[in-house]
Write a sequence for this structure.
């Protein structure tokens, strides 16, 4: 005699509580309810419901077994998700949201959109930070990965490879990642290299190919294995400067990005930074220097976009179609110092400052984080001036919105699936 509870339904309530309900089963002598292989209780033949509470975040599978008169057990199963939708953010200053308040970061905008679409609270696990490389630089030590600093302070470590482990450890126990946002590889090339007009576009393209190709494919594969089932969105970059950028703005950007002072750069009019006062020594660059910098920036942007998209496609084929590539719709007019710039400029007081300028300035005064005049060896090797202007060249409010728009275009097709998976009422099978 095959008997089984029909119409098994799990209803999620607040506070990690679940109520199971099922139809009557003719001939049943009782019921046994289990969760995750652990027996929760035995019920009489007239039982039609069971309440469970105190559940941790995560996916919970329930089994309700109808016990017949003869020793044969037929069961019904239902799975229900408790807790929040989890977004993991990995990467560099773009992923971190340099210069933005938490509410305006594209990760927060994405969380708000997901929450509204699926009617569930969303948790952000932010492992990204300013300055992060994809992989450790040559000559670094394993212990360097522990050299974490506040997210606004440029720091190579923890690298994105290490961030995967840190993010996994930061998720609520038993609760999976549902969406992973990733941006990285520009620091493995270096803004100073891109902005240096004595480099050429072919060199920059080659560096972008090396940094954004195999290392990113390996990282995406690692993310896919560590967060099974999560949707992964790899993000592109934008033109740092363009022929529409203001000449004075470009010169200051070059100096503060750390372009080396050499006979070649001096001949092209690239300013320098006074190491004591932080003042920029020099003025506007020439149009020739502007064009050289713009060509390098375009070479990085075009090559990185092509290689990152290729990396996403390659890994997507390996891990069940869970990876996509999203590139924000920046144009040359949105580059640094351009008429419609979507990037933070050098802080100059008032509304031109990025949103966390004052808070970052306080952190930048700490000698234990930076190397300043008289600083101690072993610190970041970052001047206070460069620390204070660390937001320049990063997406501002308009740029962050462009990133969110690109992300939303990639994930909106999954809203119905997530809405069903997180629905408060789940039906058994």
């Amino acid at each position: 005699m095959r008997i089984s509870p029909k119409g098994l339904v799990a209803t999620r309530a607040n506070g990690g509580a679940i109520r199971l309900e099922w139809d009557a089963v003719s001939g049943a002598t009782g019921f046994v309810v289990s969760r995750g292989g652990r027996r929760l209780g035995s019920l009489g033949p007239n039982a039609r419901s069971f309440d469970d509470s105190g559940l941790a975040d995560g996916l919970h599978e329930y089994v309700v077994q109808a016990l017949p008169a003869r020793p044969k057990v037929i069961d019904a199963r239902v799975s229900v998700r408790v807790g929040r939708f989890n977004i993991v953010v990995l990467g560099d200053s773009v992923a971190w949201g340099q210069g933005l308040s938490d509410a305006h970061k594209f990760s927060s905008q994405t969380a708000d959109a997901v929450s509204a679409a699926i009617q569930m609270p969303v948790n952000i696990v932010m492992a990204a930070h300013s300055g992060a490389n994809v992989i450790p630089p040559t000559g670094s030590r394993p212990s360097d990965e522990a050299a974490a600093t506040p997210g606004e302070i440029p720091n190579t470590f923890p690298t994105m490879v290490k961030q995967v482990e840190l993010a996994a450890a930061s998720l609520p126990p038993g609760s999976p990642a549902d969406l992973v946002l990733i941006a990285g590889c520009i620091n493995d090339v270096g803004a100073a290299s891109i902005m240096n007009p004595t480099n050429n576009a072919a060199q920059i393209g080659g560096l972008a190919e090396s940094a954004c190709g195999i290392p990113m494919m390996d990282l995406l594969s690692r993310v896919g294995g560590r967060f099974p089932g999560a949707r992964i969105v790899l993000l592109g970059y934008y033109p740092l400067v363009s022929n529409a950028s203001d000449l004075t703005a470009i010169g200051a950007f070059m100096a503060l990005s750390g372009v080396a002072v050499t006979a070649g750069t001096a001949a092209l009019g690239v300013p320098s930074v006074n190491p004591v006062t932080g003042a920029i020594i020099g003025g506007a660059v020439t149009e020739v220097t502007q064009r050289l910098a713009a060509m390098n920036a375009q070479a990085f942007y075009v090559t990185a976009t092509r290689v990152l998209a290729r990396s996403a496609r390659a890994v997507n084929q390996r891990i069940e179609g869970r990876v996509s590539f999203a590139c924000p719709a920046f144009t040359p007019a949105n580059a640094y110092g351009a008429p419609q710039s979507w990037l933070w400029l050098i802080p100059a007081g008032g509304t031109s400052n990025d949103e966390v300028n004052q808070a970052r300035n306080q952190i930048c005064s700490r000698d234990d984080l930076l190397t300043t005049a008289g600083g101690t060896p072993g610190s970041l090797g970052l001047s206070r001036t460069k620390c204070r202007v660390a937001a320049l060249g990063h997406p501002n409010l308009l740029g962050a919105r462009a990133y969110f728009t690109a992300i939303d275009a990639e994930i909106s097709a999954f809203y119905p699936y997530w809405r069903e998976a997180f629905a408060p009422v789940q039906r058994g099978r």
The first helix runs from residue 93 to 96. Confidence is low (pLDDT under 50) at residues 372-378. The longest strand covers residues 58-68. The CA atoms of residues 269 and 285 lie 5 Å apart.
